[in-house]
Amino acid sequence: MTEAKHDDNVLDFKNVSVKYGAIEAIRNISFQVKKGQIVTLIGSNGAGKTTTLRAVSGLVKPSSGEILHHGTKISGMAPHLIVRRRISQAPEGRGIFLNLTVEENIDLGAWCAPSKATFGADLEHVFTLFPRLKERRKQNAGTLSGGEQQMLAIGRALMSHPEVLLLDEPSLGLAPQIIEKIFEIVIQINKDGKTVVLVEQNALQALQIAHYGIVLETGSVKLQGPAADLLKSDEIRKAYLGEE
To answer: Is 201 exposed, middle or buried (0-12, 13-18, 19+ CB in 10 A)?
Structure first.
């Protein structure tokens, strides 16, 4: 990947910890997300990746530390206010409304877009990225394949005009050819000017498209740095890429 064009911090994690009862899911994690980058969080199940995204979205409140968006503290802020700050998430498991049509699901994503005047253009942009959704716009979301449902979850998140798009396991449970398509779309979304924070178990593909990587292990940052450097790390290649 080429270097991002901007170097200002969009998100800044400062010694963030999150607890679920007595269980500390993440502890004292610190990293920055710079404008225009794809930043990927990798690690095994239970490493704290999803909790990290949920903390950004306001779905969980840090027990200590703070998360800043362009220097403004957002940790502890209500989720709908964070979306209004143009941070949107496509959650793990997609979270779409199966009994609503494709178009109705997409429309819901626009409820807090900065301007309703851009709705038509935003909708057309989603349909350009995901032509299959346009073909199925009147179908119930429950009739879509797993890959199509993932496309719908991403398309819905894009309708709020996000500056930062949070993607949680977009390749989970999908066939290899669909995974490849999803990653191509993530690259295109980034080229369109959106900063992407990507949680992904497919470490190789995630690091191949990312500018920066953070490796989480049992709730802590084990390693972080330019994705290209992490790909060259023997430790990463053995632990996460299955190489001897």
So the answer is: middle
Amino acid at 120: G
**Nearest-angstrom CA–CA distance, 16 and 30:** 7
Cβ atoms of 92 and 168 closer than 8 Å:
yes
| Residue found by looking up tokens 């050819």 in the block | 177
One-character DSSP codes across 189-211: HHHTT-EEEEE-S-HHHHHHH-S
Spatial distance between the Cα atoms of 235 and 220, rounded to a whole number of angstroms:
16
Does domain 1-86+196-244 correspond to CATH entry 3.60.40.10? Answer: no
- Provide the 3-class DSSP secondary structure of residue 69: strand
Stated pTM of the model: 0.90
pLDDT in tens, 174-194: 888 888 989 999 999 999 999
